[in-house]
Amino acid sequence: MKVEEIVRGVLRGEKRAIARAISIIEDGLPEAKAILSALEPHTGRAYVIGITGATGAGKSTLIHKLIQAYRRKGLKVGVVAVDPTSPFTGGAFLGDRVRMQDLALDEGVFIRSMATRGSLGGISDATGGAVKVLDAAGFDIILVETVGAGQLDIAVAGIAHTVVLVLAPGLGDDIQAIKAGIMEIADIFVVNMADRPNADRMVVDLMSVLEVSPFNPSDWRPPIVKTVALTGEGIEELVEQIEKHRAYLAKRGMRPSEKKVRTLLLEALRRAVVSDILPMITKSAKFDAAVQMVVKGQVSIDAGAELLLSSIKQALREME
Ligand SMILES: Nc1nc2c(ncn2[C@@H]2O[C@H](COP(=O)(O)OP(=O)(O)O)[C@@H](O)[C@H]2O)c(=O)[nH]1
Ligand SMILES: [Mg+2]
To answer: Which of 229, 245, 274, 303 is the most buried (most CB within 10 A)?
Structure first.
């Protein structure tokens, strides 16, 4: 298929063209750029919902129920599931496939799993690209499933209008262990597996954490929704809360909250420091000198790091 043919097919909502376009983007083929820029003018209509949380929290099951709920409203639903394990080895991937097969026959539903590639930038770029394709193809709702591993789950806030963090009791992810940053980007908290013991305990813990977190009265206050994804219990309330968040965003011209942008910027900066700044430091003569001082027992590791840090701070002050 030629680029024009793919673009035309995507705009008509043809599944084969959509799948082809996403593969080209995922594989980073040269045509990807042309396809995305041709589709760009047709994007911006879809509402994008990020569903994140640890493996096994019930994200895919919840998405299955959300698809059905949105289909009942007559909306077309696209799903991009980002799985950090390779599609060939990840058992969850196959499980999701089978469970979602019935939905795949529906013309108003498109489901795509994407394996994550080595680099973080690559993941979010390809995911963002897939979302753009589905948006241009006319899907009203796009659900993006990301696993709460690494910083992937935070990056989803950059492409989703509403981020839903799915928690479940008994997964070992008690509230205290939730990584900083994720709490800041979640617009809605779901405590799934409410049929299990300790779900109420989890809700109470979550409430107390949210209560003490800094809050600006004009900000959105993230609600907590209890669900049993297996039976669909709580799904209507979740859809309602997503609608409420959408209305809140619409009222502020779809601008993301400052809190979210701060978190995303900090995360992008953290990645840039690790990929760009740290290599510069480790290649410097000062780093070698610090290594020698520690080797000779002249300073401790912490003191060596402190020496390097003061040189960096000095260089930054000179920049001002
Ligand atoms: N008891 C119970 N099990 C659930 C619920 N939601 C999902 N599960 C099960 O938990 C397992 C993991 O669900 P899955 O949707 O694949 O989780 P994901 O890894 O977050 O996508 C599956 O066996 C589901 O059937 C729930 O509300 N209650
Ligand atoms: Mg899943």
So the answer is: 229
Q: Using a CB cutoff of 8 Å and minimum separation of 24, what contacts does 268-276 make? A: 270/151, 271/120, 271/121, 271/151
- pTM over 0.70? The answer is yes
pLDDT of 156? 87
Starting from the CA of residue 99, give the closest ligand.
1
Q: What are the residues whose beta carbon lies below 5 Å from ligand 2 (ion)?
A: 59-60
In which band, very low, low, confident or very high, does the pLDDT at 301 lie, cut at 50, 70 and 90? very high
CA of 59 to the centre of ligand 1 (A): 7
Radius of gyration of the chain (CA): 22
Tell me the CA distances in angstroms from 247 to 185, 242, 244, one per residue in order: 18, 9, 5
Q: Which residues line ligand 1 (CB under 6 A)?
A: 53, 55-61, 92, 95, 192-193, 195-196, 228-230
CB atoms within 10 A of CB 313: 10
- CA 148 from centre of chain: 8
- In one-letter notation, the amino acid at residue 147 is V
Over the stretch 43-68, which tens digit does the pLDDT of each residue have?
999 999 999 988 889 998 999 999 99
* CA 10/CA 25 separation, integer angstroms: 13
Joined tokens for residue 295:
């080797």
Q: For a pLDDT cut of 70, what percent of the chain falls above it?
A: 88
One-character DSSP codes across 145-184: EEESSTTHHHHGGGT-SEEEEEE-TTSS--GGGSPTTHHH
| Domains contained in the chain, CATH given | 1-42 (no CATH), 43-255 (3.40.50.300), 263-319 (no CATH)
**How far, in Å, is the centroid of ligand 2 from the Cα of 104?**
16
Mean pLDDT of the chain: 87
Ligand 1 mean position, distance from CA 255 (Å): 33
